[in-house]
Amino acid sequence: RRAEVCVFSVSTSPAISELADDDLLWRTVPSDEEQGKALAGAIAERGFERVAVVSRDDAYGNGLRERIQAELCGVLSFDCANSYKGFVYTPPTDEVFDLDFVPALQAFDPELVVMVSYLDDGVAGIQALSAEGLGRYWVTDGMKSAELGPAMDDEGVVCTLLGTSPAQPTTFYSGFTTNFE
To answer: Residue 140 pairs with which residues in a beta bridge?
Structure first.
């Protein structure tokens, strides 16, 4: 017999939208589908022409990176053959952050590096990339923390960071409120 328990989630994973849950699972923040769309739009609005997305090799990183790419290359008609590259890393298991793709990333010479990560590995990744001469960064919700600035070694990098994060109220939140009541 099923427990039929109502669950409220702060997960941004698009996968939970597809669960057969009999309307018992409620998302209280928009999915990464929306964040990817908003982030790609913001990149295009700001006129960035060479964009690299560096993401964790997990459901969060891969899903958000793929959505950003789909939005840039499909909907926004970004020149992805020449102006977009995605790079995937395995989150570090120790103090060393190994980014074996750095030479390819440097050769691509992006104007903007989007980091799809969590705070600890994102900070380590940005610091490692900055040490290799890469510059401007956009971070996603996984790095949203008051600890971000103090964790960074390079104050110059901190001053140029951009970021996105799901927020309320949105049409999703309004729908949730109405349905909950």
So the answer is: none
CA distance 150 to 152: 6
pLDDT in tens, 133-175: 888 999 999 999 889 988 888 888 888 888 888 765 556 666 6
Tokens of 122: 């994102």
How far is it, in rounded angstroms, from Cα 158 to Cα 173? Answer: 31
Helix, coil or strand: residue 38: helix
pTM over 0.85: no
By DSSP bridging, strand 51-56 and strand 25-27 are unpaired
C-beta separation of 152 from 124 below 8 A: no
Tokens for 135, please give them: 């510059």
SS3 (DSSP) at 85 = strand
Helices (H), 59-118: 59-70, 80-83, 102-108
The residues, ordered by sequence, that sit 6+ positions from 109 with a Cβ below 8 Å of its Cβ are 50
